[in-house]
Design goal:
- The complex is a heterodimer.
- By secondary structure, chain A is mainly β.
- Chain A has strands at about 5, 10-15, 20-25, 30-35, 45-50, 55-60, 60-65, 70-75, 85-90, 105, 110-114.
- In chain A, strands 2, 4, 5, 9, 10 and 11 form a six-stranded mixed beta sheet that branches. In chain A, strands 1-3-8-7-6 form a five-stranded antiparallel beta sheet, with no helix packed on it.
- In chain A, a hairpin with a 4-residue loop joins strand 7 (about 60-65) and strand 8 (about 70-75).
- Chain B is about 0% helix and about 50% strand.
- Chain B contains no helices and eleven strands.
- Chain B has strands at about 5, 10-15, 20-25, 30-35, 45-50, 55, 65, 75-80, 85-95, 100-105, 105-110.
- In chain B, the strands form two sheets. In chain B, strands 2, 4, 5, 6, 9, 10 and 11 form a seven-stranded mixed beta sheet that branches. A four-stranded antiparallel beta sheet of chain B has the order 1-3-8-7, with no helix packed on it.
- In chain B, strand 4 and strand 5 (about 45-50) form a beta hairpin.
- Chain B is globular and about 40 Å long.
- The N and C termini of chain B lie far apart (about 35 Å).
- Classes of the chains: A mainly beta, B mainly beta.
- The interface of A and B includes residues 31, 90, 97 and 105 of A.
Chain lengths: ~110, ~110
């Protein structure tokens, strides 16, 4: 059974600081997704990582995937208040193709303070 | 493009009632799936489908039925609602290459 674990689950940051959210998963997979969710809203796709070594950046966020370590990271650079949200990683555990289903981590609640 | 459309957005049911949550997508995606979101537990897979006429169970299927008669629609049926089914339900669709998953806006269900 695929398990996906995020840490930390709660993250309180000061504006301008850097931090990393970690996503570990238990099976071999090269398909990992990062989402953002604001309170009461749906999931917004941030990054899709589809191969070992994949690195993607958008604004102050950068995501990477190491399939051998079964680890993805979401790095936040110079945090701003607008980044406050819940961040989820999710894994599609098919190898080479997709099964059309995701296993999610518990989510990381990020709060950025002035 | 509307993407993935879920209806209703909010629903209150009494214990024992049945209802259907609707999900429709207009992106011609082969795959569709249902998740429930409970506080502190992320999203958990209920049922999924890889094409019309094909469905399978996810992690938490008990109390829910699905069918997929068309590519566009994937309704989720609650047979006899229980308070434990109080949750937020999300439908998602994806192409067969898994390059993206698109989520609907969600249905907030309360069972009293």
């Amino acid at each position: 059974e695929l398990k996906v674990e995020q840490n930390p689950l709660f993250l309180s940051m000061q504006e301008g600081k850097n931090y990393t959210i970690y996503c570990n998963y238990s099976t071999t997979s090269d398909r990992l997704y990062w989402y953002r969710q604001d309170p009461g809203k749906s999931l917004e796709s941030l990054f899709v990582l589809l191969s070992n070594g994949a690195v993607k950046q958008e604004g102050r966020l950068m995501a990477s995937l190491d399939t051998k370590a079964r680890l993805s990271t979401l790095h936040i650079t110079a945090a701003v208040h607008d980044l406050s949200a819940t961040y989820f990683c999710a894994v599609d555990d098919a190898g080479g193709t997709s099964y059309g289903k995701l296993t999610f981590g518990q989510g990381t609640i990020l709060t950025v303070h002035p | 493009n509307a993407g993935v459309t879920q209806t209703p957005k909010f629903q209150v049911l009494k214990t024992g009632q049945s209802m259907t949550l609707q999900c429709a997508q207009d992106m011609n995606h082969e795959y569709m799936s249902w998740y429930r979101q409970d506080p502190g537990m992320g999203l958990r897979l209920i049922h999924y489908s890889v094409g019309a006429g094909i469905t399978d169970q996810g992690e938490v299927p008990n109390g829910y039925n699905v069918s997929r008669s068309t590519t566009e629609d994937f309704p989720l049926r609650l047979l006899s609602a229980a308070p434990s089914q109080t949750s937020v339900y999300f439908c998602a669709s994806s192409p067969s290459d898994g390059r993206s998953y698109t989520f609907g806006s969600g249905t907030r269900l309360t069972v009293v």
